[in-house]
Specification:
Largest sheet: 2 strands, antiparallel
Number of helices: 1
CATH topology: Ribosomal Protein L24e, Chain: T
Structural class: mainly beta
Radius of gyration: 16 Å
Helix content: under 10%
Number of strands: 4
Shape: rod-shaped
CATH superfamily: Ribosomal protein L28/L24
């Protein structure tokens, strides 16, 4: 699964993990993606959507 929101395009962000001794290693912050059934027009489709898009109402979840 691609770690990308299919609505807003949010992807992982890269940074550094820094210890108290200032040892540096790479790390990633992942977007909080949920696989949900989304209503697009008259069709129902499964999409990977971040929780920010779900909460803000950018997508409409399909009823079961």
């Amino acid at each position: 699964m691609a770690k990308k929101c299919e609505v807003c395009g949010k992807t992982p962000v890269f940074g550094h993990r820094i210890s108290h001794a200032h040892n540096v290693s790479s790390r990633r912050w992942m977007p909080n993606l949920q696989r949900v059934r989304v209503k697009i027009g008259t069709k129902v489709q499964r999409m990977n959507v971040c929780t920010r898009c779900l909460r803000s109402g950018k997508v409409k979840k399909a009823a079961r």
